[in-house]
Amino acid sequence: MKSSLLWLSSLSLALSGLAGAQNLDNAGTEFLCGFLTNYSGAVDLELHLTAETATMVTVEYPANSPSFTTTVAVTPGNITTVAVPAGAADLWVSGSVANNLVRASAPVEFTCYEINRQPFTSDAAMALPTDTMNTQFIVADYDPSFNTEFLVYARFDNTTVTITPSNSLQSGQAAGVPFNVVLNANEAFFATGNQTLTGTIIEADRSIGVTNGNRCTQVPLGTSYCDHIFEVAQPVQTWGNDYLVSNLPNRPSGSIYRVLASVDATDVLLDGVSIGMLNRGEFVEVGPLAGDHRFLSTGGEAFFVVQYMTGSSSAGAITGDPAMGNVISSNQYKQSYVFSTLGGMQFAQHFLTIIAANSDVGTLLLDGAAVPAASFTAIAGTGYSVAKIQIQEGTHSTMSTLQGHGITVEGYNTDDSYLFPGGALFDFINPVGDANAPLCSGERFSDRYTGTGQDNRPSEDTNANGILDPGEDLNNNGLIDVDTGVFFVQLAPGSTNLTLNVTPFQAGDGIVQFEVVQTNTALGSNGAVVIIDGAGNQTQCPTNFGASMGLSVCDPIPNSTGEKAFTTAWGSLLAADNDVTLMTTGLPNNSIGFYFVSQGNGIVSLPGNKVGNLCILGPVMGRHNANMLDSGQTDAVSLVVDLNNLPQPFGGPAVVTSGSTWYWQYWYRDDAMFFGAANFCDAVGVTFQ
Question: For residue 556, is the peptide bond before it cis, meaning its omega torsion is within 30 degrees of 0?
């Protein structure tokens, strides 16, 4: 038996419910690492690697045609340090594309930290795996004592990157004027500036990554000393709308923060007081700001916060020097982390900052032991508290029971320091520029389900004039939407006894093919395939391997395709379960129609001079869908039935009860036969328990 299914649904914003399956966090099996130029020569470039499961990690430089390759063992509880050739930072040419990235890969997930260190001018960053890469970034750095700098690197060939600098680049590109760069896989474009490049907008048609920072800077300017600072930028699609920040250890006078907006008219509050209305790419600098605080957007707009450690001669500073750290939105907190300090004995002190929900205070674990409640201080009015704990060099773990928590790792020595988030989720929770869920279609055979995920609708800006003209804003959200392509195809959480096989594809492809088979055909199975685009929108495709229910009533007449249209019911016979899906297959393409229902059956041939047989009768027949269903480019339509709200033309909606029998049939247009022609499928009758 063959049946087909077209299922369209939409769920934008948070994918936290899929995080376990999708595993979008700072652990991964492949990393592309871009090192920036440090102020001091003869720097030590390193990758510091940790893992929850023992594995072998291969490090290659440069990523294309490597001249340096090493494979190292990474074991739980240890930091494995890999020295990388200095050319990975020193061989960039401003305004040019180069094959100068470092690639790290393994058969199982591991975590990776990038270290650019030299006495008195060090910093470190949490690397992001390639599955978190996306298409939109906004640069963050600080005012330069020496150059500001960033790298843009590609995951796939023929990636077109559009860069709009916030200030002019040293290679000649003007402020505010977009320019394009084409990159192949593992290539990077290096840019430098004499002024801050914070707010530079970077967009691409394929997945990219960005590293940003300063060759050397004072924080704030005018205070000694100048240090190299950098971070791996987070895609705009992963930005949140709620950030908690805490005073850094050894900095009683506070930190400097930069707050960047992803969309126009973003009003950000600091502890409930507006710090200004920002447009896309604009930023506001706050500080030095002592104490613990909350940044929150008034309308839920996504924005970003970067924290800067002040220099050793700044007010109240105790050891350390400038460093830069991304702040993780509370929207992306995890409940457990395995992380490491920097190794190599370069830093005399290491600290862990934990921001946890008040409900987890007293039970949150550090290396398996509860952190005393007395170690935490409440962040007023937020429901969260913060603890700062000095830790030993090495790997560590944290775990909270009820809610997610955030962690930051800091290290200090004389005029030297590092600062980075210890881990985070990187779910695509900010659907910028794409409000449309992917489409899914498929066919179920007796032993498998073959399907297609599709996300390739054209831009709403049909005349490419950069604005929404009348009639172009199809979803009335005020934004120019264009599909970002398919990024992930995976089984939905809770799917059982199913194996998913996906035809290889590149993130951002418009069409992806997949197949689902029962792992053990002797057992029952259930579940769905989830299609996720680059904006985090998702669609579920139920595979429906369970047995169909009900009985076919009467025989349909072939339509213009030469096939007969049949309807099948799937789900539960228990009326209380309210679980019935109707599927009609064998339809012509682009055929519209609707389901109707009754408690009687019979046969009326050619009703109203229509083609086909009307198979359900009775005094009351109700039409299910007010809007026509459309078979599109498939041969099928489907409908989820609400058994507590069956349509009836008289006396209001009906409720299905145990022992009752109901019949469904589908009417559809078939203009290919002759103008105005219509037809019927068979009907299906279900007796409920």
Answer: no
Check if the beta carbon of residue 487 is closer than 8 Å to that of residue 516.
no
If you write DSSP's letter for every residue of 561-582 in order, what string do you get? TSPPPEEEEEE-S-GGG--EEE
Distances (CA, A) of 425 to 16, 23, 208: 9, 8, 18
Cis before 666? omega within 30: no
What is the sign, positive or negative, of the torsion defined by CA atoms of 420, 134, 197, 172?
positive
Which positions ≥6 away from 504 have C-beta within 8 Å? Answer: none
Domain boundaries, the chain: 3-13+430-542, 25-421, 548-687
Q: What's the confidence (pLDDT) of residue 473?
A: 58
**439: confidence class by pLDDT, cuts 50, 70, 90:** confident
> Rounded to whole angstroms, how far apart are CA atoms 266 and 261?
6
CA–CA dist 670, 666 (Å, integer): 13
Instruction: Kindly tell me the burial class for residue 671, based on how many C-beta atoms sit within 10 Å of its own C-beta (0-12, 13-18, 19 or more).
Output: middle
Q: Which CATH number fits domain 548-687: 2.60.40, 1.10.10, 3.30.300, 3.40.50?
A: 2.60.40
Tell me what the mean pLDDT of segment 87-105 comes to: 96
Per-residue pLDDT of 112-159, as tens digits, reads 999 887 777 778 899 999 999 999 999 999 998 888 999 999 999 999
- Matching residue, tokens 């298409």: 135
Q: CB under 8 Å to 367, separation ≥6 — which residues?
A: 396, 397
Give the pLDDT score at 582: 83
The span from the CA of 129 to the CA of 112, in Å, is 8
Using alpha carbons, list the distances in angstroms from residue 562 to 309, 558, 565, 587, 591.
Answer: 73, 5, 10, 10, 15
Instruction: State the CB neighbour count (10 A cutoff) for residue 544.
Output: 23
The strand ranges marked E within 574-659 are 580-585, 592-598, 600-605, 613-617, 622-623, 629-630, 637-641
Using CB atoms within 10 Å of the CB of residue 537, give its burial: 0 to 12 exposed, 13 to 18 middle, 19+ buried: buried
Q: For residue 101, give every residue at least 6 positions away whose Cβ sits within 8 Å of its Cβ, in sequence order, or none.
A: 32, 33, 34, 61, 62, 63, 88, 153, 186, 187, 188
Instruction: Please state, in angstroms and rounded to a whole number, the distance separating the CA atoms of residues 502 and 504.
Output: 6
Cα–Cα dist 489/500, whole Å: 9
Tokens linked to 588: 């012509």
Cα separation, 347 vs 451, whole angstroms? 54
Residue 229 vs residues 126, 221, 262: alpha-carbon distances, Å: 13, 14, 23
Q: State how far the alpha carbon of 528 is from the alpha carbons of 14, 446, 452, 511, in Å.
A: 19, 16, 13, 18
CA 279/CA 274 separation, integer angstroms: 14
